[in-house]
Amino acid sequence: MITGSLVALVTPMHASGDIHWEELDRLVDFHIENGTHGIVAVGTTGESATLDPEEHIQAIGHIIKRVAGRIPVIAGTGGNSTREAIELTAEAHKLGADACLLVVPYYNKPTQEGLYQHFKAIAEAVPGMKQMLYNVPGRTSCDMLNETVLRLADIENIVAIKDATGNIPRGIELIEGLNGRLAVYSGDDATAAELMLAGAQGNVSVTANVAPKAMSQLCEAAVAGDREEAARLNEQLMPLNHKLFVEANPIPVKWALHRMGLISDGIRLPLTPLSEKFHAEVEEALKASGVL
């Protein structure tokens, strides 16, 4: 699997909410030019929850085509319906995605056995696709326990997990328990450096949207065990790691990219543009981190 910075890419939109394909192309090129190691297409930050299935697949295909093999593309294909997740994963596999990202089912709150059977069913239905599990209980209201991940590690094409719990002791316990059977990635920018220094292989990052070069350098240093350099870069990026979450992701990061002149200001309801009271805070974080 990939080592380093995997950007959880936003989906640029016109003011109407339609996908802005030209800006999406520019973002892909921006990340490749600035050292991002891989792109996660149409995940949470890409507003997967409000893209219809046709748009979802179209966006994944568009990104794969633009990347043209220059870096890996991981397609967000999860859902709270196992059938839907299988369909999305199969389509992404046909399009040539290097792997898929499968979020823990949200809202319906399955048991741990239900989670195991959900991911097992997807793996068996699309055996040629490498799969990255995604545990983010703060959004899904369903926490996949380490013991369930250890069970899933026995399935051949489940190869990684994005751990967005932000719980470092738990993450270290998972890394040690897996003993290399799955690659572990952070999904929490504020604690990512610490988890990588403890053995994680990279970070699926929101902050990388606006600071791709610095995040790439941070991940390289942390994965290599260079604690001093990782700490320096982590301190530089910490204002963004906090202020890009003053409202629900991807509201602040889309505003930040618009402020940087990289995308239009479109976002889909029920998400709304960043509240004006937070504009100065996010702009200051961009300046403090050397982005503006």
UniProtKB/TrEMBL annotation:
<comment type="pathway">
    <text>Amino-acid biosynthesis; L-lysine biosynthesis via DAP pathway; (S)-tetrahydrodipicolinate from L-aspartate: step 3/4.</text>
</comment>
<feature type="site" description="L-lysine inhibitor binding; via carbonyl oxygen">
    <location>
        <position position="49"/>
    </location>
</feature>
<dbReference type="InterPro" id="IPR002220">
    <property type="entry name" value="DapA-like"/>
</dbReference>
<feature type="site" description="L-lysine inhibitor binding">
    <location>
        <position position="84"/>
    </location>
</feature>
<feature type="active site" description="Proton donor/acceptor">
    <location>
        <position position="134"/>
    </location>
</feature>
<dbReference type="InterPro" id="IPR005263">
    <property type="entry name" value="DapA"/>
</dbReference>
<dbReference type="InterPro" id="IPR013785">
    <property type="entry name" value="Aldolase_TIM"/>
</dbReference>
<dbReference type="GO" id="GO:0009089">
    <property type="term" value="P:lysine biosynthetic process via diaminopimelate"/>
</dbReference>
<comment type="subunit">
    <text>Homotetramer; dimer of dimers.</text>
</comment>
<feature type="site" description="L-lysine inhibitor binding">
    <location>
        <position position="106"/>
    </location>
</feature>
<feature type="active site" description="Schiff-base intermediate with substrate">
    <location>
        <position position="162"/>
    </location>
</feature>
<feature type="site" description="Part of a proton relay during catalysis">
    <location>
        <position position="44"/>
    </location>
</feature>
<keyword id="KW-0963">Cytoplasm</keyword>
<feature type="binding site">
    <location>
        <position position="45"/>
    </location>
    <ligand>
        <name>pyruvate</name>
    </ligand>
</feature>
<dbReference type="GO" id="GO:0019877">
    <property type="term" value="P:diaminopimelate biosynthetic process"/>
</dbReference>
<feature type="site" description="Part of a proton relay during catalysis">
    <location>
        <position position="107"/>
    </location>
</feature>
<protein>
    <recommendedName>
        <fullName>4-hydroxy-tetrahydrodipicolinate synthase</fullName>
        <ecNumber>4.3.3.7</ecNumber>
    </recommendedName>
</protein>
<feature type="binding site">
    <location>
        <position position="204"/>
    </location>
    <ligand>
        <name>pyruvate</name>
    </ligand>
</feature>
<keyword id="KW-0704">Schiff base</keyword>
<dbReference type="GO" id="GO:0005829">
    <property type="term" value="C:cytosol"/>
</dbReference>
<feature type="site" description="L-lysine inhibitor binding">
    <location>
        <position position="80"/>
    </location>
</feature>
<keyword id="KW-0220">Diaminopimelate biosynthesis</keyword>
<dbReference type="Pfam" id="PF00701">
    <property type="entry name" value="DHDPS"/>
</dbReference>
<keyword id="KW-0028">Amino-acid biosynthesis</keyword>
<comment type="similarity">
    <text>Belongs to the DapA family.</text>
</comment>
<keyword id="KW-0457">Lysine biosynthesis</keyword>
<dbReference type="InterPro" id="IPR020625">
    <property type="entry name" value="Schiff_base-form_aldolases_AS"/>
</dbReference>
<dbReference type="GO" id="GO:0008840">
    <property type="term" value="F:4-hydroxy-tetrahydrodipicolinate synthase activity"/>
</dbReference>
<comment type="function">
    <text>Catalyzes the condensation of (S)-aspartate-beta-semialdehyde [(S)-ASA] and pyruvate to 4-hydroxy-tetrahydrodipicolinate (HTPA).</text>
</comment>
<keyword id="KW-0456">Lyase</keyword>
<dbReference type="InterPro" id="IPR020624">
    <property type="entry name" value="Schiff_base-form_aldolases_CS"/>
</dbReference>
